[in-house]
Amino acid sequence: MSTEIDGVGVSGDVPETPTPPPGVAVSTRGLRKTYGPTVAVEHVDLDVPEGAVLGMLGPNGSGKTTTIRMLLGLVRPTEGTATLLGRAVPDEIGHALPDVGALVEGPGFQPFLSGRDNLMRVAAAEPRLDSADLPAAVDAALERVGLAGAAGRRYRGYSLGMKQRLGLASALLVPRRLVVLDEPTNGLDPAGTRDVRALIAELHAAGVTVLVSSHLLAEVEATCTHVAVLNHGSVVAQGELDELLDSGSATLTVSTPDEERALESLRAARIAARPAPGGVSVDVTTTTPPEVVATLVRADVAVYEVQRARTGLEDLFARLTQGDHEEELP
Predict the structure, then answer these.
(1) 301 and 181: one domain?
(2) Residue 282's CATH number
(3) Which GO MF term does the entry hold, naming one (predicted)?
């Protein structure tokens, strides 16, 4: 069987879309996209749990935006399958999109219309808004993103940050089950960035699933519950943010007033340790946290608290995307 995708003939059977795992808002299996000889996305397997805030990270050219465009039905995949809110993509995308708000590759509006008039045009295409409800929905969205005072100005006079805010408003005209944001803080000043962070937190608290593509690691670490890291078109790590950060470290921080005795007992047990503020830092590469605690207790060392030292997202990202990585995170 032969089919045509984006004008390119592809041989073989069209894969049957699998049933998405329970509790998953977005799921892909073997998702692949090529443009001639160029591979943009290479067999991406991705699961976004319902109600999660997932940060999609990756260097430029890693396939983030192409993956998002395939999920939204803007680009047909060369291979693989995807589901969006339980609907097959792209065949059933029309049933899912009313529940999806998206800002992808920056907003596109008419430059000579005002912000409000541009948003009214978008609102008129919303299947769940009656004509009588359009003005109220538009005003509420403008207020939500901090553009109420500039709603009457022409779009061409907007700053980059204001244009980004108007794009966010268009994604939030009606309640959504899933919101997809591609670089949502692009062009925003620190105050605008804080507003977006608060908006994402508000959506999360309401049970909305949020998929965020960003290069700002600090923002992802502050706002996201889950992370997927892409490199060279493939997912090299995904999962809960806390678990990924914990898994990247082999160090314990032990809070104790008996620092010297703690160091002596650990070193006598051939466990690498060094002084740390308020206690000691212990390398658990060749041991386990329970063995560290047992060693200290046997030596009558007072142990107040034990924590696994966390790898920063920046360090984790660098380790996953720079060079060849033989070890994989869960």
Answers:
(1) no
(2) 3.30.70
(3) ATP hydrolysis activity
Alpha-carbon distance 90 to 157, whole Å?
36
Distance CA 61, CA 73 (A): 20
Pair 163, 193 in one domain: yes
The reply to whether 203 and 283 lie within a common domain is no
Buried-state track 95-112, b at ≥16 Cβ within 10 A, e below 16:
ebbebbbbbbeebebeee
Nearest to 289 by CA among 275, 274, 309: 309
Gap between the Cα atoms of 189 and 48, Å rounded: 29
Q: Which two tokens stand for residue 32?
A: 């692949």
Please say which residue of 219, 245, 271 terminates a domain. 245
The answer to whether residue 313 sits within a structural domain is: no
H helix intervals, 145-288: 160-171, 190-205, 217-223, 241-247, 259-268
The parent domain of residue 288 ranges over 248-308
The tens place of each residue's pLDDT in the chain, 330 residues long, gives: 333 334 333 444 445 656 666 799 999 999 999 999 999 999 899 999 999 999 999 888 889 999 999 999 999 999 999 999 999 999 999 999 999 999 987 778 999 999 999 999 999 999 989 999 999 999 999 999 999 999 999 999 998 889 989 999 999 999 999 999 998 888 788 888 888 888 999 999 999 999 999 888 888 888 999 999 998 899 988 999 888 877 666 688 899 999 999 999 998 998 888 898 899 988 887 788 899 999 999 999 999 999 877 667 877 788 778 754 433 333
Q: Which one-letter amino acid corresponds to residue 295? A: T
| Cα–Cα distance, 207 to 52 (Å, whole number) | 8
- Domain for residue 259, yes or no? yes
| CATH number of domain containing 181 | 3.40.50.300
179 forms bridges with which residues in the sheet? 101, 210
> What is the spatial distance between Cα 41 and Cα 78, in angstroms, rounded to a whole number?
9
